[in-house]
């Protein structure tokens, strides 16, 4: 797959890449909304977000259902200070499939995030086989198009962590997606691989690829780090070596921010030998899916989406 041009970090603090057909330049790291919402101290969470912006992270991730709205609320507070909203390409996710629910999600997200528009709105958790059909049949896409026409949404995409087949089904729908978010990591190379099955199609159609789950779940429970014997730098270097626009990273402390910023700022593509060695190291443990159970079990489906599909919520 062709590489995506990466700008120098000298002018912007962090290297940047163009996000598909949006033509927007985003930092190669995206601050994850779930993890920042999990920081218990509001003031600390805000300090982390402000420091991230100061260091060059200009892409922020979130979702309507993250921690029952806390993630959007605390991010909104951080971005409302000193016009920091103007410095960030802001993305959140729609958890509904129907028209009325989607519009309700949108208005609640805008209110929590203290903004009059979203730079990117993505349909969240395309993890069930009927999700792609529901979005078009129940009116979710109609809502997204109306929101874009009204200036409340600039770009439209979708996410999912379950099955490359579902991403391909979404891409085949009658809509030119701006972005797609998916698991991107070293284990994915040999197990139900998004990077092999979906990324090439996205590149062909100029759909901006946003990676996630680079550590198999993130701090502090990154299975890749604690059980597979990998380190943060080689994990993220591998992700950033692929033709993605940005990798969502879970940052819930200043220490994690400092580590991730250093990796991104000093990023150099892996040599063929380095990549071959890393993939050989994880091949056996990756092949049975033990570290990517979000692809093979329902344990990682959010409670809102479980309820939506009539499944029990733990």
pLDDT below 50 for ≥5 consecutive residues: which ranges? none
CATH homologous superfamily (4th level) name: NADP-dependent oxidoreductase domain
CATH class: Alpha Beta
Give the overall pLDDT as a whole number.
95
Number of domains: 1
Percent helix range: 40-55%
| Helix run count | 14
Would you identify the CATH architecture?
Alpha-Beta Barrel
CATH domain topology: TIM Barrel
Distance between the termini: 41 Å
Q: What share of residues are in beta strands?
A: 5-15%
Strand order of the largest sheet: 3-10-9-8-7-6-5-4
Task: Describe the structure using short key phrases.
alpha/beta; TIM Barrel; eight-stranded parallel sheet; 10 strands; 41% helix
Q: What's the quick description here?
A:
The protein has 314 residues and is an alpha/beta fold. The protein contains 14 helices and 10 strands.
Task: Describe the overall structure.
It is a single chain. With 314 residues, the chain is of the alpha/beta class. It has a single domain (16-308), classed as NADP-dependent oxidoreductase domain (TIM Barrel), CATH 3.20.20. It is 41% helix and 14% strand. The chain has 14 helices and 10 strands. It has helices spanning 33-37, 42-55, 70-80, 99-112, 131-137, 140-149, 164-171, 194-197, 199-205, 223-226, 232-241, 254-265, 272-287, 303-308, and strands at residues 16-18, 25-27, 29-31, 59-60, 89-94, 118-123, 153-159, 179-183, 208-212, 246-249. The chain has an 8-stranded parallel beta sheet. The chain has a two-stranded antiparallel sheet with strand order 1-2. β5 (89-94), α4 and β6 (118-123) form a beta-alpha-beta unit. α2 (42-55) packs across α3 (70-80) and α4 (99-112) packs across α6. The radius of gyration is 18 Å and the shape is globular.
